[in-house]
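Q: Sequence in, structure out?
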Amino acid sequence: MNSNLNLIEVGKRIKTRREQIGLTQEELGNLLWLNKSTIQRYETGKISKIKLPVLHAMAKQLNVNPDWLSAKTDNMGSFEEKYESYKDTASFIDSYDNLSPIHLKKFPMLGEIACGEPIWADEDKEHYVMAGMDIKADFCLTAKGDSMVNARINDGDIVFIRQQPIVENGEIAAVIIGNEATLKRWYFYKEESKLMLVAENPKYPPLVYMNEELETVRCLGKAVYFMSAL
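A: Exactly. Output:
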């Protein structure tokens, strides 16, 4: 979704509505758990992407139609008007035994994690992702690259991590190697003092660490869920 947004136009609309209702950049940032500088980058179109949960939360605080804020329509409307359809949908869902609404909670977003060559996973506590309360995770990361495509984890997917110091062989783990991070299947052989981190794409060879090299590797946790844009 983010790649299809006209970020310049979205930024203009954020600024227009913020000023219209008399909020400063800092005040809007506080409402959204974002820094003032982040709001400034959104408004000037100098940010590479806007996550869907942030855009939706911003529309709510600005009380505008989320479709207007994302430049999909010229009808500013109000968030309440848009939300009426959500309430109607919830009532409709309740009438069916095999359908249920998603109840949301906030997960901290910790930057990007490589699906390929390891990259630095910068902690980014100013961003959160809203997702189902049934997801047993502690934080989430944005996947980068194509090494996990055969596990259906693609570039840009949000991967939810349950924090734990080790995982079972064959499970997908978020792993720190020195000051870099990667997402791979984990295979640890204690007798051989050997760790293999295996991609889900045959063009990437396994990463192998043995003996003293193991001291440079730390398991952040187990990947328990991922979320892709449609």
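DSSP finds six helices and nine strands in the chain.
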